[in-house]
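Morning F.,

Quick status update on the modeling queue. The single chain you submitted on Monday has been processed. Sequence for confirmation:
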Amino acid sequence: MSKITFLGAGSTVFAKNVLGDCMLVPALEGFEFALFDIDEQRLRDSQNMLQNLKESLNKNVEIKAYLDRKEALRGAKYVINAIQVGGYRPSTVIDFEIPKKYGLRQTIADTVGIGGIFRNLRTIPVMLDFAKDMEEVCPDALFLNYTNPMAVLTGVMNRFTSIKTIGLCHSVQVCTKELFESLGMDHEGIQEKIAGINHMAWLLEVKRNGEDLYPEIKRRAKEKQKTKHKDMVRFELMDKFGYYITESSEHNAEYHPYFIKSRYPELIEKFNIPLDEYPRRCEEQIQRWETMRGDLVNNKALDHVRSKEYGSRIIEAIETNIPFKFGGNVLNTGRLISNLPEKACVEVPCIADRSGITPTYVGDLPEQLAALNRTNINTQLLTIEAAITGKREYIYQAAMLDPHTAAELSLDDIVSLCDDLIEAHGDWLPEFKKSEDEALTV
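Structure tokens below.
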């Protein structure tokens, strides 16, 4: 029996989306869906939910929950990863509250920025443990990573393990559709080209029947900027740098040095920036789960409509050899994007079929876009150095190179902030050692 293993299966709603999608793929009849989570109650909730869904859809798959991770992985053909190390409490709260003491405000804090750095540092060791298990019990499995920070975690898996890994995000497939809906434009029949890095990929081309639609997009966007709306940061970036970006305005507000600035507090109102947005969402989701749980977990008539997630479509393409094109995160090996570093993880069009996943060559990005990408890649690569070497100085340097953090804090404050975050996270982080020189001077 072939096997799909879901790590972080206690994310019940997401497990329903991805594994519910897989149930609707005829080529996956007879597969085992293996579930693993460190929270046994949430694991059982997801098992019950998926068992009900299997029966209501009358599907020939086996739903099995595991408390032993290695056994969950044993013999898997595909592994889906959706973990969050440290959870909302304590880790996400720490990522937001300690930087606030230094006057450093964030919106989402899960990709780069000071919050993204520490989310990476507590997640990378767990990912490397996954890879170690997989190299022993399912060395040929494809690892489909949905966990943020996407670029760093996917890069680590591909650079430092033998596990074939593809990073999957939601932003590429909805980028153009949501843009057109926002501007009252018809989305049907368009041709698009998107590439860059995760959460900072660029709509490089958008056409219909050979006509460039960017002039009309920019005209309407400039008009819409005259009134308050939820996408003002992205429209401002498009106005100043020439291209629309895939990820939301609340994310991009903290990826750049231009928007969240203590010296210019009026920018928060001007660009409608939702500070502390991610903690708000977490609190709302926790409250909603209590009311959703009964309807979702114990619903014998549970139904499912295939979602927009890429996971089931990639697996289907590999199983059937019917190609599927998608935006995926891969190493920039061979300079797929030729003016970004080879060690970077890039988001480019990819093709899945029986031979696996083949990323496509993009070439040069417009130089201003590559420059913006590199500002975030710098922090990503230094964060990886910190995780792999255990050297605290690389954490400091990653933070010093982060555009938002560097725009707000002095070098000494950045060092102090990192030390405070390391102490607050405690056992959620491995030990990071100071160099001998630092030990004498810090």
